[in-house]
Amino acid sequence: MGGNHDSPTFLDAPQELLGAFSIHVVGTPPLRWEDEVKILRDSQGRPELLVCAVPYLRDGDLRTAEAGESPEDKDRKLVEGLRSHYAQVVALGEEIRQREAPGVPLVALGHLFVAGGTSAEGDGVRELYVGSLARVSGDIFPENLDYVALGHLHAPQKVAGAENRRYSGAPLALGFGEATQKKSLCRVEFSGRRASVDLLPVPVFQRLERLRGSPEEMLCRLRHLATEGESVWLEADYDGEEILGDLGASLDSAVLGTPLEVLCVKNRRLPASLIVGEEDGGNLTELNEHEVFERCLEEASVGESQREELRRTYREILLDLAQDDPLGEERSDACASSEYTSKI
């Protein structure tokens, strides 16, 4: 099932070939509702599970833009579009269940941010839609669903406390903000239509750690980690009062000859001119696209009354670029995600 980071056309390309091996791929919303409901069968050909395979629904899949509409109108149409899509595909799934597979569980998939969900700083989770729809109400899922399996949030969690509505989370840490998260997979077993869930822990294949504090505290922590003899990828985040121009060099020197590797240094006390690099381009890996835009607003002395509308317009531009990109959303959010994921 396609997510917001995926190229939908790339996923759909081998759809027919993989279908011959009973591997179902849904990158874009199919033209026919019937193609979004999958019947999974056992070795005897008997239905075992009905799946409403809803991929990530982009802005253009949910609403038609109209001249003069307000941001509130856009948000309302997006919410209505999501609710209508799930209502229609689940209604069809229920119809198929009654006709072909009575008593078989009905499951829905989705890629969205449900209100109340949690994410961590630096985990790379992105805003899906411009405006308040970044988080949608959990009641968009019809009550006759026996299980809802969601993607987008990287931490495993229930949706609104419901046992049968869950984010399984990412099986690997995708940024230093997830360094302390316990990763798991959801094993769902059905007794009739009743779902029971077991969490299967995922081993840590590459340890991550975020360093914070004074330079002395960071160096002390590095010396301790070096004695453990384990490979650790590190992010250093310094926000102390003293301005340090050689923090990165001192940390790199401290890990020489050890299995430690400092992938990212965030020095929040460097002057803006040094971070952005007025003459030679500087180290932009420490800034994501939103932070660069905020610096542009500061440099241009844009009044606060104008900033929110400019921010919204900028987010819309970024969203349009991501959705028009045939390779999906491959932009880095910050140095932690860009350098860490490239290492993988």
Structure described in brief:
With 344 residues, the protein is of the alpha/beta class. Helix content is 33%, strand content 20%. The protein has two domains: 8-201, Metallo-dependent phosphatases (Purple Acid Phosphatase, chain A, domain 2, 4-Layer Sandwich); 207-343, Double Stranded RNA Binding Domain, CATH 3.30.160.
How does this structure look, described?
The chain has 344 residues and is of the alpha/beta class. The protein folds into two domains: 8-201, Purple Acid Phosphatase, chain A, domain 2 (4-Layer Sandwich); 207-343, 2-Layer Sandwich (Double Stranded RNA Binding Domain), CATH 3.30.160. The chain contains ten helices and eleven strands. The protein has helices spanning 8-12, 15-19, 59-62, 71-100, 215-228, 247-254, 272-276, 289-299, 304-324, 335-343; strands spanning 37-41, 47-53, 106-111, 147-151, 157-159, 162-167, 184-191, 194-201, 207-212, 232-238, 260-267. Strands 1-2-3-4-6-5 form a six-stranded mixed sheet, with helices on one face. Strands 9-10-11 form a three-stranded parallel sheet, with helices on both faces. Helix 8 (289-299) packs antiparallel against helix 9. The two termini are 22 Å apart. The model is unreliable at 129-133, 272-281 and 327-344 (pLDDT under 50).
